[in-house]
Write a structure and sequence with these properties.
single chain; mainly alpha; two-stranded antiparallel sheet; 11 helices; receptor; membrane; odorant binding; Odorant receptor; transmembrane helix
Length: 387
């Protein structure tokens, strides 16, 4: 099957389902419904948190904070994405235009197809892994209760998939079964949305890197024999236009994901810290094996989420420098002066840094990822000392 978009089918379906895809009817209703469901869940989650805000219940408190903080992060992400949905629609429109221009050139189409295949593979892979981690996290407590039925596990108490405090009785059938199914489906939708948003960042960066590779390829294709002809002026004009589109695309990405990345840093630092604490205390628990597997997969999923965003910023920054290198490597010394001056302006504009920043305060890079993990480990040691 011929690839016609850098965005995978799973990402498109989810963006349509949550009302972010352009042209979807009743998109506001879809978005509001999901946001209201998150708000209701958050209310009961924070009721549980405040009710168990005690040092003596630190282990239980940290465990419930993991899901609670993630719900808060998703709510803020979706609110930010909805406010800037016109920017997202512009980005998606520009991507369609880029693909239409590539269809008539086999070299360009080959480059974009490779990027699209990589994007589809990692988007679907990350979505699958995150869903598995969520299922293990939800089912982990049930497995522990089933295997380790001791005096510490009151079998008469029915536990919901996530820790929330509802104002009515939840242990009687069929109310309990209904709540388990509803909460599980909601958690899976929530996890799916998280994966799609992170996959979207990686997808947009890969698309932009494909356009950069096309420009570099065109610079290499301009040989010494064609530089003296007027046709090269037209080629330079097309390259300048494509370069302007890349800069505009990068600016729109920065508008869309700047606050998004800042929220990601703070919330993921707290979540990784909580998961690390749960992971440590699980080692000394009699239910260690099941709890370790449950926590390890969740920890890896969260770490992969942070790493994907940081790596995307690092990769984009690295690819942005390749335009200036490709321009300089051209045989500019054999060109007429009026054409070599064009190259100078292209190189000057290529100095504009392409990056994903966190609130325009710091770049998302591998160094940022290292800092997040270091900070999380430091907080884990403090929590463990308190415990």
């Amino acid at each position: 099957m011929t690839v016609t978009s850098t965005i995978s089918l799973a990402v498109i379906i989810c963006l349509r389902f949550f009302g972010f895809w352009p042209g979807v009817p009743y998109s506001t209703i879809y978005w509001l419904s999901f946001m209201l469901s998150i708000l209701v869940t958050q209310y009961f989650q924070y009721l549980y948190v405040f009710d168990h805000l005690k040092v003596s219940e630190l282990s239980n408190l940290v465990d419930c904070l993991i899901v609670t903080l993630y719900y808060s992060l998703t709510f803020l992400k979706l609110a930010n994405l909805w406010i800037r949905r016109r920017v997202l629609h512009q980005i998606l429109t520009d991507m369609d235009d880029d693909w239409r221009k590539c269809v008539n050139d086999d070299q360009h189409l080959h480059i974009m197809t490779i990027k699209a295949n990589v994007s589809h593979f990692f988007s679907n892979g990350f979505l699958s892994f995150t869903m598995i981690a969520a299922i293990l996290y939800i089912c982990g407590d049930y497995i522990i209760r089933f295997i380790f039925v001791t005096e510490h596990y009151n079998d008469t108490v029915r536990q919901l998939p996530i820790k929330i405090q509802l104002p009515f009785e939840t242990e009687q059938s069929p109310m309990f079964e209904f709540l388990v199914i509803a909460i599980t489906l909601h958690v899976m939708l929530h996890v799916c949305m998280i994966s799609i948003l992170n996959g979207l960042i990686f997808t947009l960066v890969l698309h932009l890197s494909g356009q950069i590779d096309i420009i570099c390829q065109e610079f290499r294709n301009i040989s010494k024999n064609t530089l003296v002809h007027r046709s090269s002026i037209h080629s330079f004009g097309m390259l300048i236009e494509r370069h302007n589109r890349i800069l505009s695309f990068s600016e729109n990405m920065e508008k869309l994901f700047s606050l998004f990345s800042l929220l990601q840093i703070f919330w993921n630092t707290a979540v990784v810290c909580c998961l690390g604490f749960v992971f440590i205390i699980s080692i000394h628990n009699e239910t260690g094996v099941v709890a370790l597997v449950k926590t390890m997969f969740t920890y890896l999923a969260v770490a992969m989420e942070v790493f994907m965003i940081c790596f995307s910023g690092e990769y984009l920054s690295s690819k942005g420098k390749s335009i200036a290198r490709a321009t300089y490597e051209m045989p500019w010394y054999d060109m007429p002066s009026n054409q070599s001056k064009i190259l100078i302006f292209i190189m000057m504009r290529s100095q504009k840094r392409l990056a994903i920043t966190a609130g325009k305060m710091m770049d998302m890079s591998c160094e940022t990822f290292t800092s997040i993990m270091k900070a999380s480990i430091s907080y884990v040691s403090v929590l463990y000392a308190m415990y």
